[in-house]
Amino acid sequence: MSDDRLLVDEHVLRRALRLDADEVPSRLDPVLIAAAARLPAQGRNELVIAVLVAFLGGWVWSEGFRAVAGLAAISGLDPLAGLIRLVAAAAVFLAPVAEAATHPAVPIAILTAAVLAVFFEQRGRTHAASS
What we know:
Number of strands: 0
Radius of gyration: 32 Å
Shape: flat
Low-confidence stretches: none
Oligomer: single chain
Strand content: under 5%
Distance between the termini: 18 Å
Helix content: over 70%
Mean pLDDT: 79
């Protein structure tokens, strides 16, 4: 059951996909290079603005850290110790999950399950197509 309207001439298809050697467009187009050369140079003002924004952002970030460290020294609280306690508690809670996930048999079992799923899917498609 082939429909002749769906068939495409090989020559037309090769030309549309530019598969022939003479159909490959040139990589360096002189017209585009000349047009790009005529554009005004953009760079100095944008570079100065980017450097200033980066400098000010870094300065604000460092001042924020300095303020937090100063408040911690004044109040006697240690925010870093609290963060370390939180991370340690999470690690203790998640240790069994990490141990099970890193067991050597787990990746092999996952790969085997994926291969079997693909095999049975292909077998089902073949069976459905033949019936």
